[in-house]
Design goal:
- By secondary structure, this protein is α/β, with parallel strands linked by helices.
- The strands form 5 sheets. An 8-stranded mixed β-sheet has the order 5-6-4-3-9-13-14-12, sandwiched between helices. Strands 15, 16, 17, 18, 19, 20 and 21 form a 7-stranded antiparallel β-sheet that branches.
- The longest helix has 25 residues.
Length: 526
């Protein structure tokens, strides 16, 4: 047997390293391989080896292709203080320097680069606006307007601490938004009805107030910033309160509104949480959905990374405000993070990671106040565990349990408005079925919104759902965790234990929720 193999390889590698920031690698590989194998079996073997090598090389080179858009989401808890906003300014100043250097080096390139900044409402603004709307619906307009005035005053007081040169222009803009909200509240008080459409318009104003303040700060600090209204880009359906985005329309509108801003400036500022129908009617995508806005934009722009800046450096084994010694989770898959958010963790919107799953864009949850190495990284896959491992405990308090007869749910038909029962199930935190009933747990605010519908349901006492989220393996089940959970909570009134997705959920009396959570965390994590 005679084998002649002649291989010519020309490799040209250029490596650009930016210390502590980013590594850019440009690789040009030209390979010419001439193989002459006389033996048929060996020839087939060499052919398969070369095919496998080319496949691996192609995948490797595809991973080296870097996108140049970074999406930052700035949490409302950070923006409520001067210290938090100054931290944002510091983060953006460093990022803008990096982008400016890269822009000079790539002046002839068509690559889009820059920073997209998504803002949340400051502090408890959304909650205060919701309360004002409810007061107006009850006919207590004076109290509603007083609540609104306090919210506007909070923004103005924060602006005063920042010592802005053009403070008067910011105050005029805040007053203009306040006048719009006041008009909606007057209309609600007159008709004594708060429609989902009006409620979304009122709640979305919280992000508008925050965006106005942050834009004024950035312009005062001489940042190249362009404000794009979220209603022009985040296109959704008409399901007010829980609107679903349309990615195809978002991609088209991003090319129209965001990309030109990235080409002319380094920072494009948008509001989170809110969107609009194709007709321009304001919608919201659910409580705490500013995270979803950031990941949606990362999807349509092909972003290199998403960073969610919060007061905490990541996701913990339990809410640090509820337990004394929570454990920071360094690495999570998107599915696991969404499960933690779905079960009540307020640090995450339940479906925030959906837009990143296909693109496999990494996401970090970090804080500007701690050590840079302490953060939680989210990605599509993580190393599998050898056994079923508890990840976190999430709490969903103040839930109203209801029971619906299963025969009360009409069959699905096209172009039919959802029945009251279907609306209940759509807004349910979780639901499960028994032999002849459909059971659901609703938050109080959702129950108030649905209470106007004429539907007869059996309502029980308030409960709390304590969810133990686990990282499961194919070999091991969750029977051991189930035993530990039942043993830990044996001193409490345990209504039921459910297994949903990647969680074991214990339903306890609402009054016992916090002690039960602390006891379970101590037994499993401390």
């Amino acid at each position: 047997m005679r084998v002649r193999v002649r291989v010519r390889v020309r490799v040209r590698v250029r490596v650009r390293v930016r210390v502590r920031v980013r590594v850019r690698v440009r690789v040009r590989v030209r390979v010419r391989v001439r193989v002459r194998v006389e033996n048929k079996i060996l020839r087939s073997f060499v052919k398969h080896i070369l095919h496998f090598g080319c496949s691996i090389t192609s995948r490797l080179l595809s991973t080296l292709a870097l996108h140049d858009v970074i999406v930052y989401k700035f949490g409302g808890a950070l923006a409520r203080s001067k210290r938090g906003i100054e931290a944002l300014v510091r983060i953006l100043r460093e990022a803008v320097k990096r982008e400016a250097t890269y822009a000079r080096r790539k002046s002839k390139s068509e690559t889009i680069h820059g920073i997209v900044l998504v803002t949340s409402a400051i502090g408890h603004t959304t909650r205060n606006l919701a309360r004002a709307a409810e007061l107006a619906e009850e006919g207590r307009l004076a109290e509603a307007e007083s609540s609104l005035a306090r919210t506007i005053a909070q923004h103005k007081q924060l602006a005063e601490t920042l010592q802005l040169e053009d403070e008067e222009a910011l105050f005029d803009r805040l007053d203009s938004i306040a006048n719009e909200i006041s008009g909606w509240l007057e209309g609600v008080a007159i008709v004594r009805e708060l429609s989902p459409r009006t409620r979304d318009a009122v709640l979305a104003s919280g992000e508008r107030l925050s965006a106005a303040l942050i834009e004024a700060v950035l312009r005062d600090r001489k940042f190249p910033v362009r404000h794009v209204e979220a209603s022009n880009v985040i296109i959704t359906d008409e399901q007010f309160g829980h609107a679903r985005p349309n990615l195809e329309e978002m991609a088209r509108m991003s090319e129209k509104y965001i990309v030109p801003g990235l080409r002319r400036a380094n920072i494009v500022l948008l509001e989170g949480f809110a969107g609009a129908t194709p007709d321009g009617i304001t919608t919201t995508m659910g409580s705490e959905s500013s995270d979803l806005t950031a990941t949606l934009l990362a999807n349509v722009l092909g972003a290199q990374e998403v960073v969610i800046w919060k007061t905490l450096p990541g996701i913990y084994s339990a809410d640090p405000e509820l337990v004394k010694t929570p454990k920071l989770i360094r690495s999570l898959s998107f599915d696991e993070a969404e499960e933690i958010g779905r079960r009540g963790s307020r640090i995450l919107f339940p479906t925030f990671a959906h837009p990143l799953m296909e693109a496999n864009t990494p996401l970090r949850i970090a804080t500007p106040f701690g050590h840079a190495a302490r953060h939680t990284t989210l990605q599509r896959e993580v190393s599998p565990a050898r056994r079923t491992v508890p990840l976190a405990i999430a709490l969903e308090p103040h839930l109203i349990p209801i029971s619906l007869p299963r025969n009360h749910i009409p069959p699905k038909r096209a172009l039919r408005a959802p029945s009251p029962t279907e609306l209940v199930l759509q807004h349910a935190v979780m639901n499960w079925s028994s032999s002849n009933e459909e059971h659901a747990l609703l938050r109080k605010e959702d129950w108030r919104a649905l209470a106007r519908t004429e539907i007869a349901v059996a309502e029980g006492p308030a409960l709390a759902a304590i969810s133990l989220v686990f990282r499961a393996t194919e070999r091991d089940g969750n029977s051991a965790l189930l035993t530990e959970l039942a043993r830990s909570l044996r001193a409490f009134h345990l209504h039921s234990i459910l297994t949903l997705e990647r969680s074991l959920i214990a339903l306890v009396d609402d009054a016992e929720a916090l002690p039960a959570l602390k006891k379970l965390h101590k037994d499993l994590f401390e």
